[in-house]
């Protein structure tokens, strides 16, 4: 599992040679999901760069959700190829939302576009075992959200899983990853904007009712109806939590 050694181009950062090499190997199939990357020393020698530069490259791949790293010296250490595109997208979006270059309102509108498209494009054939299984799981998430002892953070986590699961009904992996990244990018901002327990108690009852309505529409095969309910739900939650 080796490729032709690369040397840094003039003006390029040393770690970029490792990133380009890993990308090339993934595209060619030389590296696949579950494969372990060579060690720091081997990568440094292959590309003629320092181990510090190799570590920079691995950190970037980790943040992007391309590899998962584990410290130590045993068989479980090192970097293993994974695929978690939402993690990388969410990390980048969160930083840019923090700079206010990407307004939260625009993230919310992007969510509306993606979620309503996914609902309208959902494969709602009840004879499809995969669709039935996803809708059943969505219902189980709603049941879990009914727990009166559930903390706010736990509710938000279940809520995120519910929405991402619904977006997967369209069968588009890119939309699903983008949906998850958009939700993750603003989850902290939205959670912090709900002021106190009284406000949250009032809000959570409405959220449960809205979720049930969306789920019922999908169970009935009404993707267009579910899309409109999703639009109203997302806008209501964002407007109410931001004090509008």
TrEMBL record:
Keywords, alphabetical: DNA-binding, Transcription, Transcription regulation
HTH gntR-type domain boundaries: 12-84
Keyword Transcription: yes
SMART domains, per the entry: FCD, HTH_GNTR
Gene3D superfamilies xref list: GntR ligand-binding domain-like, Winged helix-like DNA-binding domain superfamily/Winged helix DNA-binding domain
Organism domain of life: Bacteria
Molecular function GO labels: DNA binding; DNA-binding transcription factor activity
A Pfam family per the record: GntR
UniProt key word Zinc: no
UniProt-listed PANTHER family: GLUCONATE OPERON TRANSCRIPTIONAL REPRESSOR (PTHR43537:SF24), TRANSCRIPTIONAL REGULATOR, GNTR FAMILY (PTHR43537)
Descriptive protein name: DNA-binding FadR family transcriptional regulator
Native source organism of the sequence: Paeniglutamicibacter cryotolerans
């Amino acid at each position: 599992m080796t490729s032709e050694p690369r040397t840094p181009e003039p003006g390029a950062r040393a770690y970029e040679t490792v990133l380009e090499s890993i990308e090339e190997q993934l595209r060619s199939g030389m590296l696949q999901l579950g494969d372990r990357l060579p060690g720091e020393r081997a990568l440094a020698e292959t590309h003629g760069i320092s181990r510090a530069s190799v570590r920079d490259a691995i950190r970037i791949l980790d943040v992007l959700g391309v590899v998962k790293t584990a410290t130590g010296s045993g068989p479980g250490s090192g970097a293993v190829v994974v695929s978690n595109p939402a993690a990388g997208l969410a990390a980048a979006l969160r930083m840019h939302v923090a700079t206010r270059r990407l307004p939260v309102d625009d993230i919310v509108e992007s969510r509306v576009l993606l979620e309503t498209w996914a609902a309208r494009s959902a494969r709602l054939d009840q004879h499809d075992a995969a669709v039935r299984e996803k809708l059943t799981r969505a219902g189980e998430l709603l049941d879990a959200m009914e727990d009166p002892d559930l903390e706010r953070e736990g509710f938000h986590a279940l809520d995120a899983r519910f929405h991402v699961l619904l977006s997967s009904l369209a069968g588009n992996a890119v939309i699903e990853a983008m949906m998850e990244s958009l939700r993750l990018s603003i989850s902290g901002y939205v959670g912090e904007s709900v002021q106190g327990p009284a406000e949250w108690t009032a809000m959570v009852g409405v959220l449960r009712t809205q979720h049930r309505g969306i789920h019922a529409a999908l169970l009935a095969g009404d993707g267009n109806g579910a899309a409109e309910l999703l639009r109203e739900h997302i806008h209501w939650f964002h407007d109410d939590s931001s004090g509008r």
